[in-house]
Task: structure prediction
Amino acid sequence: MDVSTLTIETCFKGTNVKTALKTDEAPTRAALIGMLTRCVKFIDANKTLTEPEHIAMTVNELLQQFPTFTLEDWRLCLYMMAKESFGPYYERLKLAQFVDCFAKYDELKQPVIQTIRQNERKEAQRVQDEAMRHLKPEYATEINTLAARVEATDWMRGQNRLTYTERQEMDKRQKTSTKHQ
Result:
């Protein structure tokens, strides 16, 4: 996927960096170092990360401070850094500037995540309410007037329930009564 089409919402659904490192560490670490190196080369600041040790230290620090980021978050954040969305760098791009930009990206990300979580909670509540509607006898009485004669407490105790044959007979009577009407 082209990085310019990424949004915070799509990044949120991506692969967590820590999970990717546990699953396949070498390629994940290489991808993160590659993303960081491309960003450094693109920005082309006078004082920047030039040594491999400095780049590795920066990646490790960002992983430690932002463990909830996904691989896509990294791509989008570094792309936004290249566009200078977080402000100019004044010819200096070291660890502190990366941490500052990642923190600003995290601030941008928080309201979006809260909205996603609220929508997930609403959907879970809706599914739970729908499931409870099928479980509670009082809901069934609104739809099935024949079941209205049964008290909910008796139903849960197993009393006053129709047997299979009683239910079949009731269905037959109901069908014949609707045919006559």
Summary: The beta strands are 47-48, 92-93. The two ends are 63 Å apart (CA to CA). DSSP finds nine helices and two strands in the chain.
